[in-house]
């Protein structure tokens, strides 16, 4: 039996994933968490072979959680299940130690395949992610400017370019508006941009939104 823990801050999403995994007789959900704090407590007593982890957690990004889990639970296979398109975060997640990347908009039954794949010791790659990986290996010198951004900086970039206000972004990421403003300033500096309009143009040209 494969023990799976779900970590997503939306209860409805967790329910949908749980119902999907229930169709596999050899998979059982041993626990659910809505934040990193809950996940850390859950992992102390609940068995976990595969962790299905959302990237957009309150207070702490999934990439940061990945780094912590590699130290505290190195044997746990981590499968990222995110609403973000593959071209934004998949390679980042894989480089950070994820064993696979699945998009929430994809066929739900792919999650069962993904869980089986990572349990076999292999990486779960969708055709889109496999192509991105191949492109990055073939043209490593063409690293885009936003590749230097941290996880929170990239999230801030995408959300601003999507038309969200700093106060809204702060609420979504469970951060203070001042902290989000700092991230915005760092993004502008690293990308050599001057304002939100240029930032939005950059995001559109690089297919981040």
Automatic annotation (TrEMBL):
Keywords: DNA-binding, Phosphoprotein, Transcription, Transcription regulation, Two-component regulatory system. Coiled coil: none annotated. Residues 142-207 form the HTH luxR-type domain. It comes from the Bacteria. One of its GO terms (biological process) is regulation of DNA-templated transcription. It comes from Comamonas flocculans. This is Response regulator transcription factor. The modification 4-aspartylphosphate is found at residue 54. Residues 3-119 form the Response regulatory domain. SUPFAM superfamilies: C-terminal effector domain of the bipartite response regulators (SSF46894), CheY-like (SSF52172). CDD domains: LuxR_C_like, REC_NarL-like. GO terms for molecular function: DNA binding. SMART domains: HTH_LUXR, REC.
């Amino acid at each position: 039996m494969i023990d799976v823990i779900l970590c997503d801050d939306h209860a409805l999403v967790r329910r949908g994933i749980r119902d999907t995994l229930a169709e596999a007789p050899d998979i059982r959900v041993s626990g659910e968490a809505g934040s990193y704090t809950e996940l850390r407590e859950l992992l102390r007593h609940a068995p976990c072979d595969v962790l299905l982890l959302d990237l957009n957690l309150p207070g702490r990004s999934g990439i940061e959680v990945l780094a912590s889990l590699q130290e505290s639970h190195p044997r746990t296979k981590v499968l990222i299940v995110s609403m973000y398109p593959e071209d934004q975060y998949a390679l980042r997640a894989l480089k950070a130690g994820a064993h696979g990347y699945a998009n929430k908009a994809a066929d739900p039954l792919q999650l069962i395949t993904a869980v089986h794949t990572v349990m076999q010791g292999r990486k779960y790659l969708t055709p889109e992610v496999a192509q991105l990986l191949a492109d990055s290996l073939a043209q490593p010198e063409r690293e885009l400017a936003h590749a230097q951004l941290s996880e929170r900086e990239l999230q801030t970039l995408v959300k601003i370019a999507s038309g969200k206000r700093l106060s809204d972004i702060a609420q979504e990421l469970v951060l203070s508006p001042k902290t989000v403003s700092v991230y915005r300033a760092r993004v502008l500096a690293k990308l050599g941009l001057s304002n939100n309009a240029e930032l939005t143009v950059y995001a559109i040209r690089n297919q981040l939104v």
